[in-house]
Structures
1.
Amino acid sequence: MLVGVIAACEIGFWVVLAAGLAARYPLRMRRTGAALLLGVPLVDLVLLVATVADLRGGATAGFAHGLAAAYLGYSVAFGHSMVRWADERFAHRFAGGPPPRRKPRYGRARARYEWVEFGKAAVATAIGCALLLVMIALVGDADRTAALTGWTARLGLVLAVWSLWPITHTLWPSRPKDGEASRRPAERARPR
């Protein structure tokens, strides 16, 4: 059942976000749009309450409980940048805003961008692991929470793999191919 709640929360995140942006730009209802956008984090709260209620109700922690902690960590760490990403596109399409920012493609700017994204992943991992530890302490029964302990290693592995992108872009920065730099406008580095 908890996997269904996670899926519903992911769908709910995008539905609430789209509704908020649609109200804000095409419908020109700024206050309604702002209120809906403020409701985006409430979707995460629903998942947190459902997970804690399930564990407090005597459930043995399983894959879904660990997935919920990981989802919440990544949602909190990346949620703001996802909202900004969507807002830039809606503003450009419906309100005559500037073109959306693109990630840098080359050199130091790209390496900086990748390190910022890695920093968000590190925050997500820390939040996810903290939630796992809180769930383990909340239940207080090692037999019922054994599955959660393995999730800290999974999150650490994801972070270790993620580190390959900023490291490789730092050690071997990408460069434009011959002639490509003259065809493209200069890109500005703007971390997301």
2.
Amino acid sequence: MALKSTIMKVQLSLSDMDRHVYQDFSLTLAQHPSETDQRLMIRLLAFALNSCDGLEFTKGLSADDEPELWHVSYSEEIELWIELGLPDEKRLKKACNKSKKVVLYTYGENNQAIWWQKHQPKLYEFKNLSIFSLDYAATQALAALVDRGIKLAITIQDGEVWVNTDTTNIEVKPLQLM
């Protein structure tokens, strides 16, 4: 018997002072059985960092040919493709060829630096690719917030992110690698 996704209801209040985006969202996220709490919260963080009209969560882990989030225009062109993790160069090349802009958020305890060192020279070929590294301790702290009903306030200013609940404040500083 196959396991079903866990449905998460998220109330998100976003104040992005860098891009002048101030909005409240009621989101429903499906957490795939193999998706960690850390990855789920990074998806939510990526949504906040790139929030725009038309940004959508995709099938994610359930579909090999889709990113985690994307913005598709009315003319069905992919405007923004958002990846998570440490994908191989082929996947990033495919994303860069299909989309106007690609953003990758890397995460993990000890493997980000190794991945970056291995792939860095080839990735500079992709002019529409931006890569951000997320601190392991910060993303683990975010994972501790997972609940079926999450209420978050996310504030973004000068590239720094503060994620707040009624009882917790977590600072995340995405480091831009390229």
3.
Amino acid sequence: MKFELKRVSGKSILFVMAAEAEYGPFLRSRIDPLMTGVGPVEAAIVMTRALAQLEAQDDLPDMVVSLGSAGSAKLEQTEVYQVTSVSYRDMDASPLGFEKGRTPFLDLPATIEMPLRIPAIPEASLSTGGNVVSGAEAYGRIAADMVDMETFSVLRVCQIYDRPLIGLRGISDGVVELQHISGWTEYLHVIDRKLSYAVDALFTALEDGVFWF
């Protein structure tokens, strides 16, 4: 499990990504992220292991940044958005009387707000789940602006360790129905570049003292 905390203006940051395909040359020149693998289960396992390891070393990060691609039928393709809230679309205990998206017996709302903001980066809500969302009908069942497969899990682990989280997602697909993995990977090189600019904006905000937590 290879990764390195980034230290900026006295703050340590753990960057978290899912897949090597999203980690292009622009991000490689800036960060050495924790790679979790794809999906909420892998993200939870790897993230928990990493933070447990850092806690044992008395080196927990001051902040975690989850970044990568997302799908959306509403937002501009290839643009980067920071996450304002995240929900877990796989959870549905409504037959037992619980609100859809709310985990039974857990004191959390169905949609969890993420209050930290990097200046001048567009904002959007996010839905996390274990399925690849594709097509107008599937997107029509999701209220959030964009979808991914990891951020909710990363957030839950951050909550357990009391670490703040920022989510950054570049829109890779969603305008047309996916037919092949190339429909996801086609614009990842563009997203890599734009995500790197968002990372730069975070570093600049920290250095200038206009971003704090």
